[in-house]
Design a protein that fits this description.
Layout lengths: L1 E5 L5 H14 L8 H4 L4 H9 L7 E8 L2 E11 L4 E9 L8 H15 L4 E7 L3 H9 L3 E10 L4 E9 L7
Parallel strand pairs: 4-5
Antiparallel strand pairs: 1-2, 2-3, 3-4, 5-7, 6-7
Helix pairs in contact: 1-3
The structure holds coenzyme A (COA).
């Protein structure tokens, strides 16, 4: 049984540990690296989670199986475009193929609609076939646009988008 909840100000250590696990587990999935993240100080993790724990601009969600945290995802509003970017999406390898990822994304989609974000974007690395397939199942489509490259790791981030308003037409 998977449950989700929004991060609170008390979740600084949980956020740091799960994000570091994600970066260590899936180095080819993110623009950020474990090596850079492990050097961040406590204040930077605290400030990041505080910016997401209430309000209408950012939302971090944790997924739990029993009392174990097994997933993380966040949605950050882009003030200029009125869209929102899905970031940090990760579930524990033991929970892949379970509903955890879709529940996390579902929570963020509901919240996005509540706070007036109607267009979701994300970047996924071109080598990450599993994530691309997951997002396609959730209705996202690739625009083919390359958002960033990291020549040191031979990675490029590809843009995928989903217009939430279109869900009402399905
Ligand atoms: C991305 C992620 C959250 C998706 O969650 P998940 O539980 O694995 O997703 P699902 O199992 O529901 O969907 C993945 C689909 O890809 C398929 N798949 C598995 N490996 C694949 C591959 N190499 N290429 C293409 N498709 C693949 C799976 O069979 C599944 O399809 P199905 O439901 O038709 O069988 C999870 O895999 C994860 O945390 N990955 C590591 C971190 C990551 O990549 N984050 C995304 C950053 S943008």
């Amino acid at each position: 049984m998977i449950s989700c909840r929004r991060a609170t100000n008390a979740d600084v250590d949980l956020f740091r540990s799960i994000r570091l696990r994600a970066l260590q587990d899936s180095p080819g999935a993110f623009g950020s690296t474990y090596e850079a993240a492990i050097r961040r100080d406590h204040a930077s993790w605290r400030d990041q989670i505080l910016s997401t724990s209430d309000g209408i601009d950012r939302n971090t969600q944790f997924a739990f199986a029993a009392d174990q945290c097994v997933g993380l995802a966040a949605l950050y509003r882009d003030q200029d475009t009125a869209s929102g970017e899905i970031v940090q999406m990760w579930v524990d390898p033991d929970q892949r193929g379970s509903p955890a990822a879709s529940i996390l994304l579902g929570q963020l989609r509901v919240w996005a609609a509540e706070v007036g974000i109607h267009h979701l974007v994300l970047s996924v690395t071109s080598i990450n076939g599993r994530a691309i397939k997951f997002y396609e199942k959730q209705g996202f489509r690739s625009t083919g646009e390359c958002l960033w490259t990291d020549p040191n790791r031979d990675l490029q981030g590809i843009r995928m988008t989903l217009t939430l308003a279109s869900l009402r037409d399905e």
